[in-house]
From TrEMBL:
Biological source species: Ramazzottius varieornatus
Recorded name of the encoding gene: RvY_04035-1
Single GO MF annotation: nucleic acid binding
InterPro entries named in the record: DDE_SF_endonuclease_dom, RNaseH_sf
Annotated protein name in UniProt: DDE-1 domain-containing protein
Span of domain DDE-1: 162-247
Amino acid sequence: MDIRRWAVTANRTIGLVGFMASPDWVGKLKRYYGIVDRKITKFVTDKYIQEAPQVKKTAEECVALVRSRISNYGLDCMWNTDQSGFDYEMRPGRTLHLAGAKHVLAICQSENSMTHSYTVMMTIFPGTRKFLPQLWITLQEDKGVVGPIVARTMFKVDNLYVTASASGKMTEKLYLEWCEKILFSHVEDRCILLADSWRTYSDQEAVLEFKPEELEYEMITIPPKVTDDIQPLDRLFFRMYKDSFRKISSFIIVHSLPLQVHHRDVILKMHSLVYQQLQSLRFGDLVNQAWHLCGYTDESFDYVNPTEFSLNSVGLVIVTMKTATTGFCLSAAGAKLLSASITSTIKTSSETVAAILATARKVGSLKKIAREVTAMGYPASYGTVRRILRKDKDTTKGVQKKPKEIPPQNTRPQHIKSIEKKVFKDIDKPNPPSQRQMAKKYKQAQQRLNRGPNFLKYLKGEKWKFILTIDDFWVYPTYVNGQRKVYYKFRGRENCKEWKKNCQRKHPKGIMCCAGISFRGPTKMFIIPSGAKINADLYIQNVLKPLIEKEIPRLYGKEAHKVVLHQDNAPVHQARKTQEYLRQSKVKFIPKEH
């Protein structure tokens, strides 16, 4: 219609006799210039066109302001947050039908879920960390709150923070809760928040009431009508996130899995799974590219599409979650990204196994096999290669694997359970007793009750990544001080095969060692000399001194001053001489009282 109208209008100036702008002429014109029909995504007025230069100018000013903050303070202090609505049941708007059909019906699991939605609030930043540890989700509940029964039985996981509202959308109260529980509890030193012009964001006075005193906080508001262009989450990231979520939901529907995709627990499990996947280092450049496309950074990145990598058509498999009774779909490549804390044991994909076995015919070294297979696009560690080759060798020889013996699980003592029941009964009263009274009544030390909250202060935010826990342990070899046969061969002489040589030096049956573990990895193992007297001097010289001078700088580098040492209450660890040495070495440590 538009092309015919334009053509007729232009012909009034040109004056071609008999030109009618027929449909055949319009079709030839469209084919010649590659013009096709496209769905109109937005209707605008003339005012919108007239304001376009001013809108563009405000966008450029916002980008310039953000770039100046990045140049002054670096990328590690910049954050971008935004909300996105999700339908409870995500279905495509089109389907196949016979030509000429006037009414097209499609089956859904719940009509109500097609018209109701919930909100996901995500935060990303271009620095070392890409995401906040928790994803904020606001569900739609009738009374605006999650009922007590639902709250008790609802699926819970560490990387989700679930709230509710009557509309399923964020409110000012929920926004302040997000600032207190999610944002301010996971940022340090300086926070520059980049957000759109949502009306609730403008009430920054209420936000400052929850801000820690030591945190320097600033909010930069993106001007209206330009969020699609200069907001990193809208520009690239939310589209990738929704594609991954939609593909999992579609797989459940297409394969008729016994799951209700609109069910509260199923939605939370899928969000937890997708959010956990996207936190992989493999997708870090996706966040960086989103900031680059908005003009905030100069460097461009070749990112990996999460949907194509983790949920491609190579072959979907079902990965069972520990906390779920049913499964979720991921490809073999995507299964490798899931953490052992979220998923159960994941078998190595058939493509990786085939690549390892094929490479093993040409290369003998396990390390070289792992290196070449990884270069082919099938990540495999040294342990994986060794396990696959050993299993292939046993299968060839017909060796059957013995069933794994499950050790008995440790359970809490019975007297602890009985005390818990009594305590719950006492506090379920209008005027419950104090902690001190209950500790005295049930003979539980008040000091022990206070240690928990004190110790949690060292785990707040990102502080737990700098805790180094050390402890001593014993290693007992299974066979020492035995006899061994020694064979000597002389030219022209026979050797005595019964000749045995006794062990000249007696070795201890037990070896005392000390080692530490942290977020950055384990430390070197320190061996305590056999027969030495265990005291503070020995502990300082053989463990603390090499730990402080070599191992902590090796693990943390320039951030070694942030490390906090965690030890148990052994006499050597809590000795006055040991603690004095730590203070002189300017090493932070958790005191006995905490």
